[in-house]
């Protein structure tokens, strides 16, 4: 329950730090269901600045987003690190560098690996725009801490989220609610006028996550952090199984509950996996029930994927589905997530399904590159190999670089390279 006064405090606190005015141009990049949109929309309106509402497909196409930033002369932008990383790559590969007038870029929603900013700083420097790693759960009204990132930070190993915004208190506590010394890991607690009232009609959960201390309400974030000498906070990860995927908060138990409703699933588990790129993907592990028919696992996995896709947003649908005879348990009889095997991705069809034209070959090569697999056959379903919307955006951009204009929407709606190639040839022959 976030109140008007909580949002006002956010705006006033940010006003003390940043030189924002009615002359700025902001983007509304995120859905109004994502808390960052509160800052995007009301920040712009509070200053009397211009607000550019980014079309959905533009937000999913990095090179189109760069063109919008240039065309609209955007000065203030909020992004998730994953989305900004895709835009950095598009910027690096572009034949003509976009002329940007960005002043501030706020990165939030998931852990920021400072190293991903290296090519941006190398090409554009760290002065204009200024890039900030901002952190804050929805329960504390969008942003609670901030930290400017410069080229000098790139060699550090920690993801620094800095200090609390004006009026915001940050504390690092052990499981017993006691403060821990600097350098020791603990649970981040946030206090101050931005802390919301709690959860609607969930008194027990509110008391658990919003403890009263020193006469004020705090929020126990469940995020593992460490306070450094000088007071800065280094973000380490989640203490529980509530994670961030592409900037969205995901509860693994919710996905598992939906997957268990499938009639062919006896038991299941969902785990988060960190890729070499630093992005987080979801892996599902399924124990098939006695009613499950005998069929290729790829077909079975497709059924499970479609089952979840009808009930959950795309970022909550696992990238892989692995069949197990049983789930590993620890000595306490609880699921041993650390013992779950590496995700299973079906092997490409290879020689049984060879490319028959240049478009198929280019598509398969792009998908293989960005999925990090040895090969992709034209008849493979790339979503069963771990693809998602960000990877699809990278493939769309790479194909355009090779002269093949294939909209991102086509790649997302038709995940089989051969079908996409057929669409491309048909649209080209028709003059579309």
How would you characterize this protein structure?
It is a single chain. The chain has 432 residues and is an alpha+beta fold. The protein has helices spanning 4-17, 36-47, 56-59, 62-71, 81-93, 118-124, 203-209, 252-259, 297-309, 358-371, 389-401, 408-413, 417-430, and strands spanning 25-28, 50-53, 76-79, 104-107, 130-135, 145-149, 159-164, 169-173, 185-191, 212-213, 216-227, 233-238, 242-245, 248-251, 265-274, 280-288, 320-323. Helices cover 31% and strands 22% of the residues. Strands 3, 4, 5, 6, 7, 8, 9, 10, 11 and 12 form a ten-stranded mixed beta sheet that branches. The protein has a three-stranded mixed beta sheet with strand order 15-16-17. Strands 1-2 form a two-stranded parallel ribbon. Strand 11 (216-227) and strand 12 form a beta hairpin. The termini are far apart. The model is unreliable at 348-352 (pLDDT under 50).
Helix content: 25-40%
Q: How many whole angstroms does the radius of gyration measure?
A: 23 Å
User: SSE string, helix = H, strand = E?
Assistant: HEHEHHEHEHEEEEEHEEEEEHEEHEHHHH
**What proportion of the residues form beta strands (DSSP E)?**
15-25%
Q: Let me know the largest β-sheet.
A: 10 strands, mixed
Total beta strand runs: 17
Overall geometry comes to globular
Q: Provide mean pLDDT, rounded.
A: 85
- Tell me the distance between the termini: 49 Å
Structural class: alpha+beta
Low-confidence stretches: 348-352
């Amino acid at each position: 329950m976030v109140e008007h006064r909580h949002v006002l405090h956010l705006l006033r606190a940010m006003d003390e730090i940043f030189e924002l005015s009615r002359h700025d141009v902001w983007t509304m990049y995120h859905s109004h269901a994502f808390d960052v949109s509160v800052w995007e929309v009301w920040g712009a309106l509070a200053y009397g600045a211009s607000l550019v509402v980014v079309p959905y497909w533009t937000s999913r196409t990095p090179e189109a987003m760069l063109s919008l930033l240039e065309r609209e002369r955007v000065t203030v932008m909020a992004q998730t690190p994953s989305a900004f990383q895709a835009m950095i790559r598009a910027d690096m590969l572009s034949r003509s560098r976009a002329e940007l007038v960005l002043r501030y870029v706020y990165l939030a929603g998931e852990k920021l690996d400072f190293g991903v900013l290296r090519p941006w700083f190398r090409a554009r420097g760290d002065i204009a725009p200024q890039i900030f790693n901002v952190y804050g759960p929805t329960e504390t009204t969008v942003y609670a801490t901030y930290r400017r990132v410069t080229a000098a930070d790139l060699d550090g190993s920690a993801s620094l989220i800095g200090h609390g915004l004006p009026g915001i208190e940050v504390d690092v506590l052990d499981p017993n609610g006691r403060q821990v010394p600097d350098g020791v890991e603990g649970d981040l607690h946030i206090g101050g006028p931005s802390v919301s009232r709690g959860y609607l009609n969930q008194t027990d959960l509110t008391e658990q996550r919003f403890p009263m201390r020193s006469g004020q309400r705090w929020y126990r974030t469940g995020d593992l952090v460490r306070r450094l000498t000088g007071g800065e906070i280094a973000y380490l990860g989640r203490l529980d199984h509530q994670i961030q995927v592409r900037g969205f908060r995901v509860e693994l138990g919710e996905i598992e509950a939906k997957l268990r409703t499938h009639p062919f699933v006896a038991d299941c588990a969902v785990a988060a996996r960190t890729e070499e790129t630093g992005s987080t993907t979801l892996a599902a592990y399924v124990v098939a029930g006695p009613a499950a028919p005998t069929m290729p696992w790829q077909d079975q996995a497709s059924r499970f994927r479609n089952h979840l896709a009808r009930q959950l947003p795309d970022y909550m649908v696992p990238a892989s589905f692995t069949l197990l005879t049983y789930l590993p348990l620890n000595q306490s009889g609880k699921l041993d997530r650390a013992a779950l095997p590496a995700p299973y991705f079906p092997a490409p069809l290879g020689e049984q399904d060879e490319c028959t034209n240049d478009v198929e070959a280019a598509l398969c090569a792009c998908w293989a590159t960005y999925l990090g697999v040895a090969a992709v056959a034209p008849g493979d379903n790339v979503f069963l190999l771990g693809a998602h919307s960000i990877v699809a955006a990278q493939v769309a951009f790479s194909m355009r670089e090779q002269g093949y204009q294939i909209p991102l929407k086509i790649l997302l709606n038709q995940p089989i390279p051969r079908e996409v190639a057929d669409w491309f040839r048909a649209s080209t022959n028709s003059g579309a």
